[in-house]
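Q: What does the predicted 3D structure of TetR/AcrR family transcriptional regulator look like?
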Amino acid sequence: MVLTSRGAATRRRIVTGAAALFRERGVAQVSLDDIRAATATSKSQLFHYFPGGRSELLLAVAEHEAEQVLADQQPLLGDLTDWRKWQAWRERIIKIYDEQRAGCPLSALTAHLSQADPAAAQKIVIRMNERWQAHLATGVRALSDSGEIDPATDPDQTAATIMTAIVGGATLLQATDSMTYLELALTQALNSLRR
């Protein structure tokens, strides 16, 4: 569907409004009527932009949340060229998750998987993870090239380990409301990078 700038803005308003409601209340607790009310959208507008109904909207929100996970880390994620910048990025990650707690886009994205088309939602998560891992691997290569870490360090494997620390820590944050797991896992993953 080709949208005018006004149409694109309306669609974006619906998606961001739905995302906020899903984070606040949980996916299962939000109806299309709730989304319409929160975004000042008519039923005809909602189905114009999302003719597939709730499942299509959920996929659009999942795309939005995936983008948000990466956007929240920028510009630091795109410039992991020395150890000082890695430490600043680590602090940014801790701050993001500490502020977001139950409203984190990563957790919201995971919640959408069971409610939307699973195959399509999985592709969204895979694309996000690939992009995230690519940024981290580029940063690991920069550290290796500058001699700050062992040149034999595998960038892709290391990036996957760091991502796993974040995702695991974020999952435990959701379950326990404790930042300890995320802080320890991410610190350990980065400390092992420098050994």
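A (community wiki): The structure tokens above were generated from the sequence. The domain at 5-60 is CATH 1.10.10 (Arc Repressor Mutant, subunit A). The radius of gyration is 19 Å.
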